[in-house]
Design brief:
This protein is mainly α.
Amino acid sequence: MNVYEIIALCGGLTGLIGLAGFILFYKQTKRIKNAEAEKSELDNFERQIDRYESRLHSRDQKVDAIYIELRQEQEKYLVLLEQYNKLKVEHKLLEVKRCEVRGCKDRQPPSDF
């Protein structure tokens, strides 16, 4: 056997050992890579969920603030409406009590004033 044959034989054995290792550990390597891929996908989904939850939380806060503002405006409106109705009743009452003939005892309409 010469040197070239020994080198070729060593190269062939190395190739066979590499091929045998690939065949023996292919499923395990494939399973590990699939698990890593699934883990990275789950991490990505968790990041998306966290981002969506934070956006939803901020939008909920905005909606709550808008509802608080709406309730304050409604309260102002109700106060103004109550004042308006009170003034309207007072106006009608004053119209009824208004004297059409001034300075006489035969007041129209008669009143205790």
